[in-house]
Give the backbone structure.
Amino acid sequence: MALGGEAVMKKISISRLFVVIPAIFALLISLVVFPQTVNAAECDPAFFSQNNIGLYSDCPEACESGSSVIGVGGGVPAETTSYLDGRNITALYEQNKARYEAAGTANNVKPQIIAALHYREAGMNPTSSVYNGAELGSGTNVDGQLVVSDPVEDATRATKTLVGLASGVYGVDITKEDLSIEELGKAFLAYNRGYLYERSGNTYDQSPYVMNGFDEEHMNMAWVGPPGDPALDAGQIDGNKAGALAVLSYLGGVTGDVECSTSGVVAGDIVKTAIGLAMDRPAANGETDVSLTVQAYRDVFPQYNSAPFAYPAITDCGRFVSTVMRSSGADPTFAEVFVPTQIDYMNSSGKYNSLGTIGIDQMQPGDIVATPGHIIIFTGPNGEYMAADASYQDRVPSVRPTGGVTWMIGEGAGVWRLK
């Protein structure tokens, strides 16, 4: 018996339903149980969460030298401004200005720099020494320096000491016209436990004496307490909410929009940055001490890593590659750590071509070579060296001979190239 029109339509609708329901169910399963891998949009944190990438740089701004370090120009945070307003710093600067200017002229140093030093040593107290806050005319201080009664001579002596320490500890010339934040920070650190920080691998941006209150990333800082300095209680919050750089910025002695650390970092150049951040000879197995790392890597590491600059993080191959990629600006959102995560990132970000396992003759400088257990940067013919890497708990970042690359290829390493 032939079916009527209505019955036919019902049969067709039911048939379609049996086809549509499984399709919808499959789609829901794929979306809920198996999230879709997506490519990264520029500065899109959702990409990292959807691709299970937990540690990444949250869209840092690049600058001309390639290493976005510390923003300035907008003044110190409101909390720091309020704190310094409450301590009448502007009025104290005017009261001591002739003293700072005379010492500055004698040493070719900006008076605001001397004022910032005086603040950290004595709160800009007009009757106290710039050296270490001792009362003017009190004789030889605890540092073995003569504290004279004349305020101009005292400031001149202290400034000369600052110039000498900045040059001696970090090779910074603070008498030149244009000083970067990094150079100023190192100069102030040299005056306050610089040798100890240098010896233990700590940097100026870890010092409350230098950085406290300078920006939102450096508020209410704790002392690091480097080895050999029993006077400091590691972990204790600095009671003075303004470091020397914060005071310098408050007084208008810091200018510009973004300050960059240029040492070892070359904008957009993976190879030059990798070589600049690595020891210039192959590190031997067991060379893991912080002191073996180049200064450029010590400077840039804290800006791009959540782990402290210490063993074993300094030997981590993944952290070295990510620091190179992010500090150079070649890929500011490269996954920070864990090689399998970094491989997933390169495969899913849309920024890289996956070339599989290829020979050295097919590689290009700047290629990233990786297995699930190790990752390196191919630097191409560079004398007798072909790559730069670190090895977790084994050696600090250094250049590597050809054998390091051929070993990776023998292990079935893949190669990724930034598009």
